[in-house]
Amino acid sequence: MLEQNLLLDFSHIYPANIGNDVNHLIRIDLSDIEGTDMYCSHEAMLEIQRRLNNYGPEGIHFLDNGNYHYMTKVFVDKIKKPFSLVLFDHHTDMLQPMIHDLTSCGSWAGELLHENAYLKQLILIGPSQQNIENNDVASKVIYISVNEQEEDVAHLQIKKVDLTLPAYISIDKDVLDRYWARTNWDQGNMSIKTLEKILQDIFKHQNVIGVDICGECDLHESYWQLKEDEKINHMTNDILYHFLSQYML
After folding, report:
1. In this predicted model, what pLDDT tens digit does every residue of 61-119 receive, in sequence order?
2. What is the pLDDT of residue 99?
3. Are 137 and 146 in contact (CB under 8 A)?
4. DSSP helix/strand/coil, 195
5. Domains along the sequence of the chain with CATH
6. Which residues, 6+ apart, have CB-to-CB distance to 243 below 8 Å?
7. Residues 6+ away with beta carbon under 8 Å from 153
8. Is 33 exposed, middle or buried (0-12, 13-18, 19+ CB in 10 A)?
9. Among 248, 182, 245, CA closest to 218
10. What is the DSSP letter of 41?
11. What is the DSSP string of 106-148?
């Protein structure tokens, strides 16, 4: 399978010429596949997997807005050795899906914990305390909440991380405050500098297989709001892409 930096285009939220402006980034148009928004049907998942069959989990992947965060599961299911998932998210994405047996943007991480035998640890960074649930896979999950970051006790949780495992990193920009990102979900209060510092520590101590980024805004916003939000997200995507490229290329 190929190691490539990919842009998955479900909603056309990304600039049409981004492939020309950004080096080593391949756009894959998935917008014609029905049954992908928030919930992914079985037929849609099979077609997505077919189109991504030649691409591995390595590289940097842009996943569109948070409604398609389940695409992380598609990439990490390609990893066939023990690994950890470092998930930056204001939500846990471990909810029970409202539509039974369909993967959703809010349930994919819980499904991954139950179904993927190679996933040994999930390090979840960024949820508010009220969003952290008790579950039957708690032994695999290391929670670092927003409050823990502010109180500077995150290092107590970080000590539990198995640094011998290679890591896959997934970043939902809803973990950032609205100065740095405008998403289609409620957001946390992390700055881009804090995110970069944590990422730098991960790259320093673990072998990173790949990274993905989601959290674009809603195309149905009013025109001027959409333009403002797109400008902010484009700036942050550019910062993250160039920061990660130091380590991934």
Report:
1. 999 999 999 999 999 999 999 999 999 999 888 877 666 677 888 889 888 998 999 99
2. 65
3. no
4. helix
5. 5-248 (3.40.800.10)
6. 196, 199
7. none
8. middle
9. 182
10. -
11. TTHHHHHHHH-TTEEEEEEE---GGG----TTGGGEEEE-HHH
Residue type at position 150: E
pLDDT along the chain (249 residues), means of 10: 85 81 83 95 96 95 96 96 96 75 84 93 82 63 70 66 95 96 92 93 95 95 95 95 89
Task: Extract the tokens encoding 175.
Answer: 């973990």
Distance of CA 32 to the CA centre of its chain: 22
Residue type, 18: I
Cβ–Cβ under 8 Å, residues 100 and 65: no
d(CA 12, CA 228): 17
Distances (CA, A) of 151 to 109, 119, 173: 26, 29, 22
